[in-house]
Amino acid sequence: MTRDLTGILDAVLAGILVIDAEGRLETCNAAACRMLEVSADSTRGRPVQSLLGPDHALSTLAHGALTRGQSVTANECAVERRFDDDLTVDVSASPLFDAAGDIDGAVVFLRDGTLQRDLQRRVLEREHLAAFESIAAGVAHEVKNPLGGIRGAAEILGARAADTKTTDAADLIVREVDRIAALLDDLMVFTQGDDLQLAPVNIHQLIESVLELLAHDPVQRGVELNREFDPSIPEVLIDADRMTQVFLNLARNALQAMDGSGTLTIRTRMRLDRRLTSRSGQQYPTLRIEFRDTGPGIPAELLDRLATPFFTTRVGGTGLGLAVARHWVVRHEGVLQIESPPDSGARVRVELPLRTSP
Ligand SMILES: Nc1ncnc2c1ncn2[C@@H]1O[C@H](COP(=O)(O)OP(=O)(O)OP(=O)(O)O)[C@@H](O)[C@H]1O
Ligand SMILES: [Mg+2]
Predict the structure, then answer these.
(1) CB of 107 within 8 A of CB of 66?
(2) What is the pLDDT of residue 194?
(3) pLDDT tens per residue across span 70-93
(4) Domain boundary among 191, 208, 234
(5) Nearest CA residue ID for atom 26, ligand 1
């Protein structure tokens, strides 16, 4: 029995395009249609370069395979999409030969590397965070203990001082000790790990309560808020206090970046096709909460450093907001993504596993 070739190609997870010797599309399997947001019927007979433009690797590799008669590959090629997130794909093209040995077409493979790269990034992030957590715990512990003694001694000195110079010096010590103690308290966040209080939460109510908290903050003045909520999202199991902290930090960053004028868009979305794997190996659909602002955006060379504790470009900033946010998102087995598309503000996405029951 011979199977239907179209059915087989459609069952393959990689995108497969078959083109004729003139570079016109003959076949576009289901995965390729999904990746490129086209239908198989609409592509038949079209030149391959009409899919993503003549300069895209997809077109140049297809052309290379047809003219040189050799397989060619390119990794991590961006595919911009209108309706869904952009993709990063690995592309390869191989020539097809007729019975006489002449090139009479090519087959192009598209492999979506987005999921694998996401996974690698999550592992790296966890390792990064774990290293920082153990340093933070060590420093906080070692420094905090003697601080109480230093403060007490400075108070005694201040009380016994006969001249104002000594009193002022003692006051300075007390003030600075208090500042260090507050910073250590912030650092202690990173040592609190597995005590999440998970309960079913209406994510939109939680976002509203965050916006309510910010409503009284001068930083929100002049900024328009735009809610794009997906009403079909069910209650999700999260730690409401921790997530409030996450959203507060992200919203505050966006408001600070816009400096009194612009729009903060908060968008929620469910991704049933994108699964997040928990540490126990179970897979969940993804809940995405996106904060998009119309501020100046973030220079590409800074993007990787942002969630590093104490990295800040803001006068008066501590540089802990994003690091704390990432800490709690990772504890929820989610992902925090910071992007800054060209010609627009910053876009920060929190992706959480959509767990609905314990
Ligand atoms: N929405 C945004 N637009 C532009 N830059 C941003 C945005 N969010 C964060 N950043 C950049 O990332 C840096 C780190 O942010 P983070 O929240 O960790 O610290 P911070 O805001 O500087 O200080 P704080 O500890 O008070 O939050 C900021 O100093 C800023 O440069
Ligand atoms: Mg901040």
Answers:
(1) no
(2) 62
(3) 999 998 888 888 877 788 899 999
(4) 191
(5) 317
Shortest-distance ligand to the CA of residue 338: 1
Query: What is the predicted pLDDT for the residue at 303?
Result: 87
What is the Å distance from ligand 1's center to 319 Cα? 6
Spans in the chain with pLDDT lower than 70: 1-2, 192-194
- Asked if residue 358 is part of any domain, the answer here is no
The 10s digit of each residue's pLDDT in 102-120 is 999 999 999 988 777 777 7
Backbone angles phi, psi at 107, to 5 degrees: -120, 135
Q: Residues lining ligand 2 (ion), CB within 5 A?
A: 253, 321
When divided into structural domains, the chain yields a total of: 3
Distances in Å between the Cα of 26 and the Cα atoms of 45, 226, 243 are 6, 44, 49
pLDDT on residue 193: 63
CA-nearest residue, atom 29 of ligand 1: 312
Has residue 48 been placed in a domain?
yes
With tokens 């469910």, the residue in question is: 270
Atom 5, ligand 1: which residue's CA is nearest?
298
Out of 292, 306, 338, mutate this one to test ligand 1's pocket (max ligand atoms within 8 Å of CB): namely: 306
- Residues 100, 186, single domain; the answer is no
CATH of the domain at 158: 1.10.287
Q: Which amino acids bring their CB within 6 angstroms of ligand 1?
A: 249, 253-254, 257, 293, 295, 298, 306, 311-314, 317-323, 346
Please state the pTM of the whole predicted model: 0.75
Residue-level pLDDT at 4: 79
Q: 114-160 vs 164-188: helix axis angle to the nearest 10? A: 160
